[in-house]
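Hi R.,

Here's the chain you asked about this morning:
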Amino acid sequence: MKMTKVLKLSFNGEQISRNLVWVNPGELSTRPENAGAIELQQGDDFRVELIMSFANEYADVNYTVREAKLYTVLNEAGGSNQTLSPFEAEGEESPWTTLAFSSPMEAVDGLYVLRSDPVTVKAPASKSLRWELSLVLVALIQGGVPAFNKVLRFDPEVVVTQR
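And the predicted structure, written out as tokens:
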């Protein structure tokens, strides 16, 4: 059964750090060889939910994602298999996957939420493949404060398992 895994990332619009706080989109792997990795399954959709808060209240706050890229680095455990990304992509295989945020922002209980369009997790070429996963994005924050860009990032490890 195809599922959608949602990786929730949050930040405060006024924070100095570029780091995103993240909540795992399911279970961290309990398999000894995959301990601590985010476990995705082939065929699932994967999307990001980006949640912004502010310590101070501002009227008419809005934000958009100007650019968002997932970047994957295959760990050495992959051996000779050079699958550059666990995500389906059109065209040539690449470690870069663009995330689009085409849905409008929603204000929910004092939080400002954007959801990415899904990308599909492809079948792993080998059970031993693991990737370091990074997301770098540029958020444009405006309304209630002078408009500014904020570059944010996160970088857990991901493994794809077969059903």
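Residues 4-161 form one domain.

Let me know if you need anything else.
M.
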